[in-house]
Amino acid sequence: MWSGGTVPLTIAGFDETVADGDTITVEPYSVEPNRHAGPYAHQISWFFPELKIAHTGDTLFSLGCGRIFEGDAEMMWASLSTLKRKLPADTTIYCGHEYTQSNARFSLTIEPDNAALKARAAEVDTLRAAGKPTLPTTMAQELATNPFLRANEPSVKAALGMTAASDADVFAEIRTRKDKA
Q: Which of 4, 26, 32, 97 satisfies CB 3.0 to 4.6 Å to 47 for a cystine?
């Protein structure tokens, strides 16, 4: 029984691999794979630039991110930083799970004074009360409200009492608090 981690995948007739910086063409669109550490050491997210959509799997969630099962917080922060850098703000994000409401509650414990986050949390509660999904999200929403993407922000560092800490250390503290929540 497979319990996670990296498993080689072989499919008869397929012998091509992809790497960061590659572009795959699936007419009429291009797809850019981004290999990075997520919950496991070898995650891949997919960005479709012409469609302005990305599938971030278990690395980036709405108002959250995946747990770290392999690697460490510094690797995960580097992965999230890469997504922040590579995905334009108007990118629609499709993630692997619908954890938005619980992530919103947690996020408010990190940044209770973030007006955009408070508005997003209220919107999420309204959507869920009506039985509606909260996904997809956008990179702009996540940059404004997701504490895991905001570990480098002075307001987040101040809220945690970590103004002099590295971005990766602040991220690690947020991840630790979420793991214990």
A: 32
DSSP state of 122: H
Q: Which CATH class is domain 24-180?
A: alpha beta
**Looking at the DSSP assignment, which residues form a beta bridge with residue 53?**
48, 92
pTM: 0.86
Q: 154 — phi, psi (to 5°)? A: -55, -35
CA atoms within 13 A on the CB side of 32: 14
Which residues touch 176 (CB under 8 Å, ≥6 apart)?
A: none
Contact criterion met (CB below 8 Å) for 74 and 165: no
- Closest among 62, 72, 138, 71 to 107, alpha carbons compared: 62
Locate the domains of the chain by residue range: 24-180
**Are the C-beta atoms of residues 175 and 76 closer than 8 Å to each other?**
yes
CA 119 to chain centre: 20
